[in-house]
Amino acid sequence: MGGPRTATTVSTRRRRLVPWAVIGLWLAALVLAGPLAGKFGDVQQNRAVDYLPDSADSTQVARVQDRLPGGESTDLVLVYHRDGGLTDADRDTAARQLTEVGDAYDLTGTPRAVPSADGTTLMYPVSSTQPGQDEEARNAFVDGVREITDGGDGLTVEVGGPGALQTDMGKVFETIDGTLLLATLGVVTVLLILIYRSPFLWLVPLAVAGVAASMAMAAAYGMHELLDVTITGQSGGVMTVLVLGAGTDYALLLISRYREELRRHERPYDAMRAALRGCGPAVLASSGTVAAGLLCLLAADLNSSSGMGPVGTVGVLAALVAMTTLLPAVLVLLGRRVFWPLVPAFGSTPKARRSLFAAMGTSATRRPAVVLAGGAVLLGALALGVLNQPGNLKQEDSFTDRPESITAGQTLAAAYPERGSQPITVIAPADRAAAVLDDVRATDGVAEAAAGRSGAGWTEITVYATAAPETAAETRTIEALRTALDDADGAYVGGPSAQQLDLADSQARDREVIVPLVLAAVFVILVGLLRSLVAPLLLLLAVVAVWGAALGIGGLVFGPLFGFDGTDGGLGLLSFVFLVALGVDYGIFLMHRMREESLAGTEPQAAALTALRTTGGVIASAGVVLAATFAVLTTLPLVALVELGFVIAVGVLLDTFLVRTYLVTTASVLLRRRVWWPGRLSKEPEPVTPQRQPEPV
Question: How far apart are CA 415 and CA 462, in angstroms?
């Protein structure tokens, strides 16, 4: 009797020690990672030039400017304006304040007043190399100039220009991480309380998700330091949403299966082992799909997009590891009581309830061809809304609440219609600077050009176009300059508007490269999981249709409802990557269960309905949570993030309640066993020939 009792004792000890050991390891990792996570916000790069590839002309200009005497310059434009026309006192105020600015900071040259033709505005271009590349020093310079320059009694004074825009943009991104984390946690908390109907259970996955977010930030910081991965405010915000959204989805699946297993197993440890064996493969496959889709972004030309790939992947993997190790350990130690008041007792059976998804599936399969055709027409009609999308998003339209640098630019555009207010920068070899300057002045669309700093073999030439910034006319001027200054001159054309032009070119190239890569990567994973060619194609067609419809809905509301004047150039690619990778997750859960039913000998229609009935509730809960977390992005003050969050949230909801429930189910019913072609499930089972009974003698 000693042998069995000893084995039982060892097994009991293991059940008790393993969860504590897992929690101990996580606590140690959190202590080590905490300081690194705190530095995550410090390494974010949010200048437009940081998004661009090194090969872009405007990137080369920025790199050379860093090497000129004084380093990178901070360029501002001080705008003095009075609607009825400036008075002599206004001009005296402007001159006095410019003197104070010059006394307080080392300026590059003496600011020269440029009056508007209508006499309402004075523009003073101001530049300083004193802040250099230090972001805090640049912000202090901009804020200091704003404190010195003030109006009153009808005189408005605004500080604009590229340097002020960078400061305003940086301040917005500084608030994103904290605001986004708190808002997302709040949304997930409310949804988990509604889903679990328990005063305690919601705390567990939420706390684990918070730990995963901290670990993801630490890992992303380490990648930046070791591998020079570009981290932007956008990628940091998306990573936070992915950790909390995807992590909560994994928790919903695991806890749902764990609740079932607690009715079959007496000990929570055994129930959790069974739950992990049951849903673990699906969770691993879904997270692998998301990671594969995100890693395709490494092929992007844009630094911001290529950096988002590994940053987002780290977030997904952190959520996966936390939800499959830390969450189970905590749940096992807490035992059944964590589910109070709906505690799943050992040996009990859940109350029989009428399944909403079973009813929806049954209604869809009565006339599957009509339902499938109607759904396809609806998605196609919604996708036509893409034609109503506003044009490319300009920098001045990038904020939902326009800061001072943007309003200053608008004032300048109205007061100086005959010339641009934002400089174009040309960097020329010092020994050819004079010839390049002549070529620049001779270019159509150039209002003014002057040579500036020289050093390190280069000369900086500041150019003003006759057209307003980021207009078609200014774009033609930039392109004309690049044509006139051919490779023989060795000159580069940059500046804020040129950066936006290079950004659009890189985004177009990335769409052509990344979209097929994502489709191929996801297709290969689905083929390996489902052992079929038709089922993966069906899922990919479904998520692509969802993506088109979500973008179309965005086109119908961005301008008319939200009042946006443009669409971010990266919206199409990023929304495609996320909707395809995340949308296929829910398809994996549904089709994998359908395949299990088919392997058990269930007929195709019954297999589809069973899969929908058993997975529909969990998929719906997960879809709502994921959509809500991305919808939090719509509360941020940046138009690009609002658009991205809206499109992904709408796409996830379409995928969850229309495509997954009706279209994929009806298509599977219509295809029958052909959905598993060319696998063995696609073949009709051979009829069983009854044994011939012997004739009576």
Answer: 21
Of 8-12, 203-207, 413-417, 480-484, least confident by mean pLDDT is 8-12
* Count, residues in the chain: 697
User: Whole-number mean pLDDT of the chain?
Assistant: 84
Closest CA to 93 of 122, 127, 128: 122
DSSP three-state, residue 493: strand
Q: What is the pTM of this model?
A: 0.82
- In whole angstroms, give the CA distance from residue 262 to residue 335: 10
**Non-local CB neighbours of 277 within 8 Å, separated by 6+ positions:** none
Please give the radius of gyration of the chain, using alpha carbons only, rounded to the nearest integer.
30
Closest residue by Cα to residue 36 from 226, 207, 178: 226
Residue 403 CA to residue 603 CA, distance in Å, equals 62
Structure tokens at 473: 């006319």
Sign of the alpha-carbon torsion through 655, 656, 658, 661:
positive
Pairing of strands 114-115, 121-128: antiparallel
What does the buried/exposed string (b/e) look like for 457-466 if buried means 16 or more CB atoms within 10 Å of the residue's CB? ebbbbbbbbb
**Kind of pairing between the strands at 424-429 and 156-160:** unpaired
- Joined tokens for residue 86: 């400036």
pLDDT digits (tens, 9 = 90+) for 484-503: 887 667 889 988 888 888 88
Q: Is the dihedral of CA 561, 564, 565, 569 positive or negative?
A: negative
**H-type alpha helices, 105-232:** 135-148, 162-196, 203-227
Question: Which of the four pLDDT bands, split at 50, 70 and 90, describes residue 694?
Answer: very low
pLDDT at 478 exceeding the cut of 70: yes
How is the beta sheet containing 492-494 ordered, strand by strand? 446-455, 458-465, 424-429, 492-494
Cis preceding-peptide flag for 341 (omega within 30 of 0): yes
393: helix, coil or strand?
coil
Distance CA 548, CA 386 (A): 8
pLDDT greater than 60 at residue 243:
yes
* DSSP string for residues in 441-460: HTSTTEEEEEEEEEETTEEE
The candidate with the shortest Cα–Cα distance to 272, out of 185, 214, 204, is 204
Rounded Cα distance, 184 and 198, in Å: 20
Half-sphere exposure (Cβ direction) of 425: Cα atoms closer than 13 Å? 24
